[in-house]
Every structure is written in C-alpha cells, then in structure tokens.
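Question (not urgent): is this output format expected?
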Amino acid sequence: MDFYAHTAEDESGRPLPVGSGKWQPLATHLRNVAALARRFAEPLALAAEAELAGLLHDLGKYRIEFQQMLRGQRSSSADTQHAVFGAAWAFDCVPREGKLAGTAFAIAGHHAGLHDVGDLQQLVRSAHLHPVETSAKLVRLLEGELGPLPPAPDPPTWVSDALATDLYIRMLFSCLVDADRLDTAYWPAAPPPDKPLDTERLLDALQAERRRKNEANPNSPLAALRNRIFDACLARAAQPQGFFSLTVPTGGGKTLSSMAFALAHAKAHDLRRVIVVIPYLSIIEQNAAEYRRIFGDEVVLENHSGVSPPPDQREEEKSRLELVSENWDAPVIVTTSVQFLESLFAAAPARCRKLHRIPRSVVVFDEVQTLPVHLLAPCFNVFRELQRNYGVSFVFCSATQPAFRRAGSLPEDFFEPHELREIAPDPPTLFRQLRRVDYRLPAPGETLDWPTLAERLAAHRQALCVVNLTRHARELWEELRRQQPDEPPPIHLSAAMCPEHRLGLIEEIRRRLRENEPCRVISTQLIEAGVDVDFPVVWRALGPLDAIVQVAGRCNREGRLATGEVHVFRPADHKLPPGVYQAAADQAAVILARLGHDPNASQRLATDPQLFAEYFQSLYQVVNTDYSKRGETTIQEDRKQLRFRQVAAKAKVISDEGRPVIVSRDSHGKAYAAPLIEEIRARTPAPGQPRFTRDDLRSLQRFMVNVPSQNFARLEALHAVQPLLPNLELHVLDDGFYHPELGLVIENRPLDDFIA
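Got this back:
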C-alpha cells in the first residue's frame, strides 16, 4: 500500500482523487518536517530531539484505518486518530531510558494541544488502541521507507527541574508544530527561509533617522536630551546578555533609543531578532509604522490579531486558519503583551507555534508597568529561564518603572538589585530636565459630572480627556457634542475601533494640533502611553498612578509652553474596571491624598522616580502575583506538575479573549477591508496554491476589532457577522454595526446611524 500524509484539493477547493498525483506521500512529509524541526531547534540546542519528533509525529498515519479515512473508505472516528502512536513510542522511552519526554508531549499535542501529564499517560495506555504495542509495528513500516530511526538523544543538561522541563517541552512542541504546518501549507514547494537580522544596515538606518530628526529641530533642548539617551543605549549595548531597564521620562525618545540598544546588543551577541512587546494597539500601530518607515516593510512584522483556531481534537487537519497562523519569521517583531505572554503559557498549537522564535533574541517590553500583575511570578520565572538557557536578553522600558527589584516584602520571583541593569544615564536628572507639566489634584470629596466636565473641556480650544471605561468615553463624547453643535465634533478613541480607523484618527488629531484647529479628544486608556500627541491641557479620571503620569506625557510633550496642565478628577460615576485596575486606582488615591495640595506634590509626581517604586511596592503587597483562587493551584504549581492545559486556562492576560471581526465598511459607506475582502472572495488560486494565506491574515489584522465572547454571540444572533470564506474561522461585520465615529456599536446606536 502507498502511504499518504494528506489529500489534495483543486483550485476550487474540490478534493482530488488519490490517482491525481497531488496527495503528499507520508514518507516525504515526515522527512520534510524532521528537517524543518531540526533547523528550528538548532539555536535551542534541541536539534536531535526535534528531528526525531518530526520523524515520529505522524507515525499513526501508517495504520490502515487512517489510510482508509483519507481514501473516503471510512469516516473519521477514534479509530482513525494518529498522534497517539508516535507519542506512545516516545513515552515508552521515558521510564526505560529517561529520554524523549518532550517528544511524547509534542507529538501527542501537535493537533489537539499540549496535554496535562495525567491525560497523556491515559492516552498512551489506551486499552482500545494499544498504542505502545502498535507503535512498535508502525515504526518498522516507517523504517522500511526512511531507514533506521536515529538514537534517542539525552535531554539537555539544563533541564534539571520541573519548571525547566515545562519550558523545554514547550520549545520542542513549538518547533514541531511550526515545521508540520509549514510543510503542509507549502508542499510541494519548500517554505521560504527566515529573513536574517541585518543589524549593520538597520543601525545605519536608525542613525539616519536620528540625523533627520536633529536637522528638523536644530535648536531643540529636547533633541539634545534624546541624543544623550540614544548614545547611552549604543554605548551600553555591548554588556553581557541579561536584564536591562530603560527608565526615561515621556518624550525622551524611548522608541528609537530602545531599538538602538536592541540592535547593537543583537550585533554584539549575534542574536536572531528583536521582539518589541507593547500593551496597547494604538502604540503598536504607531511604532510599527515608524519602524517600517525607517527599516522597510519586509523587515517589520506587526502581530496583534486575536485570530486563533481551536485545537484540532479530532486530528482531521481541516483548519486553513491553523496553517496560516502567525509564526514570527521576520527580523523585527512588534506584538502585544497578550500575544507574547500567552505564547509562553498556552497549550494550543496555533498560539505556541511562534515560541521557538524567541530564543537568541532581544525582547523589549515597552511601557513595562502594564505587565499584568497577576502573572508576574510565572512570567519572571520563564523570563529567567529564557535568559539563562535560551540566550534571550530583556529590556524593560518605562517612564514609571515598576518596582521589579526584590525588596523584603516582595515575592522571591522578583529580581535581585544586581540582576536589572539601568541603561539610561542618571534617570533622576533626566526627569528633572524633562519636567513639562503641573498637576491639579482633586480636593477631598470633589467630583465632576459629565455636563460640568464637558463645559470645562469646551473652554479649551485643544484638550484631551482620558476616562476609565468605554461607556464613560461615549457618554462624555455625546455630552460634549451636544454642548458644541456648531464646533467640529470631538474625536472619540476606544478599543471598539479597528486599528486602521484609530490610526487615521490619531493622524487627524496630530493635524489639528499642528494647525492649531479646535481639537478635543475623549479617549479610553489606549492613548495614554506612547502615543505621540501634544496637548496644552489634559484631564485624567482618577485611576492607577502610572496611568495618570503616562497620560501627562501627552501634555506639553515638546515643551512649547512654560508648563502644561494635567487635571486629575473623580467622576461622579466613579466606576472602575474590576480587579488589579481597581486595586491600583485605590493605591493611587492613597498616595495622592498623602501628597495633598503640598506645593511639592506636582514636582514629586513629575520628577521623582522613587515615588513609583513606593507605589508599585504597595500595590504588589495587596494583589496576587500568580493565579490565586481558593481551593485551586497556582500557575507555578501547575507548571511543576506539567499540567499544561491547567496553566493555559489560568494564564490569561485578559479573562475574555473574545473573537475578532473584520470591518468591511462603516455605516456611512467608508471602506475599510472591503476591497481586500472582495479580492479574497473572488480569488481563483493557481493549482496547488491556497486560497487564503498568512499574508492575507497579516493584511486583515489592521481591520479587525476584538469582540467579547458574549457580544460576539449577540452579533451572531442578529445575523450581523458572516464567514469570510467557507470553513474559515474568520467573520466579517455587517456594515450597519460600525459607526464612523464610535466604531463597533451593538446597542443604543446614535440616531445618525439610521438617518444618514
């Protein structure tokens, strides 16, 4: 019998018969995946085991039941599953030789996702399939086509405890999944090679950008300070790999300076890529656009899409979305905290696929104060493992540097003082030199309702107001618009907008500010960190202290005024997002009350980095830095017991990840993804080429809005979303649900939606 790995389809998606010559032979697939997995694992020192995992991962496809299913002679069932057999062969080596634990987990989960260790034990001991006994027979068939299997390698020497074992298994799993998906997607062609990181060329481009900015502002005192920070980053990049902090006030040029350090550090240590991790989509859009302009589109990959196919529990390999899921194959990656952190703890193949690209990299955390507090302990443990055994350096950037250094009351997972090396030259002096605002703090018990606040905003030609909830932003926007019917409408910014829409609005804000036109902006927190805008006055609802100081960086940013004004207010409807955000806001209220109306209060907020060390230390004492629910284990405890699915369920940056929808047009007819959607749907691919590719997914992500699961279900019930393509887990939003000024609105849509 001829053994096959996959069937084939014609350009219209119709299945081709086995006699077409288009089905991929199983031996070819195993050989290709083994070679790719070995190549991916070379920088991880896991090459031999990754190669063996590649050879064994589809061992179960040598069973007659699986081949009959491919030929349509039987339906898919428990009898046609295939991953368990290669896993059983490897798992049998664990007690006998102390080897191949990672291979067993990786093969068993390469469709269904990583299993908890107890579930894997039950799987390989199935009384129905007899996987261990059957696998020995199947290996003889494999070796008849491919020759003898290579010997089982010893595990790496650094895999000496349970937590190190957890990450080693994940890395091997990532190599195997990426190799398998790439060969399946590209066969009969070979996948394209990774683009190398050309540090010399990119550093030259960065220096040219610095010269351009200096020439544009020849007499700017801010330019001199930014140059000093930039030069310090270059000078200190040759230090040994490890953990670094870059503590620079807002407006100090962290975006370019941190990249200068990362590229020079990568050059000094022959590292493979730079990964920039950013909390907010608005900063990703801005920074990725700037990096693309400087370095070129082919260098920078922007990855923030929440698209993730479900694990393939039945191993039928039908998900086209799975084949094109992101794998970070570019030299410079700009991604979200959600994408990066959950990749470290996920069990699903699509999320873990890119993990093997992190070793031998520089990881830059921008606005590091936004790292989720409830994940700090497991994150710091994994960061240390990545640094110690996988050649990763970390740079923590912030104007409000959190207290990650260990103190008497902080958890043991925090850093020793000597572990975290500061890059910036003399941060206290930088903060004093870059002070550009005065703070106006609320009196005890003072509150503002929306009409009163709208009146105060209307009194300023240009003003920014940041609130804590999307609902508050909309209510205040509507009140300000009601009070100023003859003025240009205020601009609303929130996560209900797709990135393309938001980025266009931010450019419009910059234009209005530059040309001194009326510009009043109501926003949620997404604008407060890293977005390059410059208002004379800013209002900020009482919230976390770092958020208050971050939004101050949008005020008098370029120092054109003697001082800007930052007003902190307590809304009459003082609702806050629950959990850590509320705890942080409570700690901020305590510190602000202690500062009171002391004339030095504003100076301390603007110039004293130690204030934030006190704030974060207080916060970390009252919140949990690992998953904590009564009667349940922590993430770290689950990692030690190799309970991968338990870890994945608990290690969520956002509790409800939601579902992305694609914005085609808004309710007034403006096109967003419409031309791309029409082209994809009308496409007739060349023979052997897929109808939907990773490049399509990358192009679409700037038109996506992530919708909470409950709201997505409501959209489905309203028939407001439709599949982009049949059998593809991507949906297009009905135009009527996307407002041109508010973004996605499901209920209480403005009247102009219906009369425009």
